[in-house]
Amino acid sequence: MAKDKVIEIIGGINDYNISRDYVKYMLDQAGAGPVFIDFSSLGGDVNQALQIKKFIADRGDVTLRYFGFNASSSTVVGHGAVKTQIYEDSMYLVHKPLVGTDPTWGSMNEDQIQAAIDSLISKKNDASAATLIIAQEYVTNRNLEMSKVMELITAGNWITAQKAVELGLVDEVIPSSSKKSAVTNEVIAMMTANGFPAVPVENSSEEEKEETLITKIINKINSSTKTKPQMTKDYSFINSVLGIEGVEVKDGMVSVTVENILKLNNEIKAKGDAVTTLTAERDTAVTDKATAETALNDATSKIDAIHPSVKAATTLEAKVTAINAELAKRPAAKVEKPHGKESESNVEDAADWDTIDNLEHNKIADKEI
Predict the structure, then answer these.
(1) Which end of the chain is more exposed for a tag (fewer CB within 10 A), N or C?
(2) What CATH number should be reported for the domain holding residue 125?
(3) What is the pTM of this model?
(4) How far apart are CA 177 and CA 152, in angstroms?
(5) At residue 36, what are phi and psi to the nearest 5 degrees?
(6) What integer pLDDT is reported at residue 251 of this predicted model?
(7) Distance from C-alpha of 256 to C-alpha of 130, rounded to nearest angstrom
(8) What is the β-pairing status of strands 62-66 and 69-71?
(9) Over the chain, what is the mean pLDDT?
């Protein structure tokens, strides 16, 4: 039986440890055929991780096996593999990506404070964009719901190998006979320095168990005194758009999911498009109105030129009455007999027949007849 081709990759994802060039070189050196990558990393450069994922996906025959502690962008690398596995004694962490911020020391005036605030807001926007990219990675490659992904990365807690498989982050668990990864002081210090949450530790002695129980009780008491989120129904329009009863408000901040933000964005865009359409229709109506008013003014000027009495009339009905009055004052034209034709109209005979009949020659003619 042919021996499996295995590439072991351990370290941070950056130019000096696990870089894209290094992973591509190792894949090329492995030659043709299926390859197993034993992978352990606390993450690092998201851009490098995305490119490593692509190199693995381009090869198309890579199985990635997580071991030890794996966190942050290292979980994205596995999305390029045809199958992901995780040793049962390993730990797994997904969380919102971190961005570098410059610590501020000493005193500042109001302008310097505002500049620091503006810088942090810009950093926050960068972090939000990176969060969406990472969240979409899990949605697209692990077929998870965005709301579930946001809950998971917002919590940002270490989970066991079994839990990672249950959540759909990894395909399957690999049984391991080795001792569980030791959480030494060095490991804890490394986690703390990199901003990771504490790794769950199993205590064996009774004293440690008792101390853990006391710690849990204290933490429970402390957590009960903290400000808890409250549900508010005041934002009725937003609630209607999102199809929810209310939003969570804590410490003056409203908490919504990425999915809800997308819904709001789509609703705002739709309303904006509607306003643009209505504005265009209004502009067309204004132009048509101006054209009609110009035509009406031209027609009115021509009508007013008929007679001063027409111009003096203030309404259209009054102008018509004035025009009819002026037409009635004018004499009617007499109807003339068309040349060569008998007139069909009754034309008054204006001849003086009495004078004509009394003419002498007419009287003689009448007697002879």
Answers:
(1) N
(2) 3.90.226.10
(3) 0.49
(4) 29
(5) -110, 135
(6) 63
(7) 17
(8) unpaired
(9) 79
Helix (H, G, I), strand (E, B), or coil: what is residue 369? coil
pLDDT of residue 27: 93
Do the domain assignments include residue 342?
A: no
List, in sequence order, every residue forming a beta bridge with 250; answer none if it has no partner: 253
Tokens of 127: 């972090």
Question: For 321-351, how does the pLDDT look when each residue is reduced to its tens digit (9 = 90+)?
Answer: 988 888 887 765 555 555 555 555 555 555 6
In a domain, 303, yes or no: no
Q: What is the model's pLDDT at position 39?
A: 95
Sign of CA dihedral 77, 79, 82, 85: positive
Residue 180 has pLDDT above 70, yes or no: no
pLDDT at position 225 over 50? no
Rg (CA), the chain: 47
Buried b (16+ CB within 10 A) or exposed e, 280-297: eeeeeeeeeeeeeeeeee
pLDDT over 80 (residue 228): no
How does pLDDT run across 125-138, given as a tens digit for each residue? 888 888 888 899 99
Examine the pLDDT at 212 and tell me if it is beyond 60.
no
CA separation, residue 187 to residues 35, 72, 117, 190, 194 (Å): 30, 16, 34, 5, 11
Start-to-end CA distance of the chain, whole Å, equals 158
Determine the pLDDT at residue 102: 67
Domain count, the chain: 1
Question: Distances in Å between the alpha carbon of 219 and those of 127, 159, 201, 208, 304?
Answer: 29, 20, 16, 16, 93
How would you label 172-181 residue by residue, b for 16+ Cβ within 10 Å and e otherwise?
ebeeeeeeeb
Q: Which residue has the tokens 């034993």?
A: 38
On whether residue 250 sits in a domain, the answer given is no
SS3 268: helix
DSSP E strand stretches across the chain? 5-10, 35-40, 62-66, 69-71, 83-87, 91-93, 158-160, 172-174, 230-232, 247-250, 253-255
Asked if the structure places residue 301 within a domain, the reply is: no
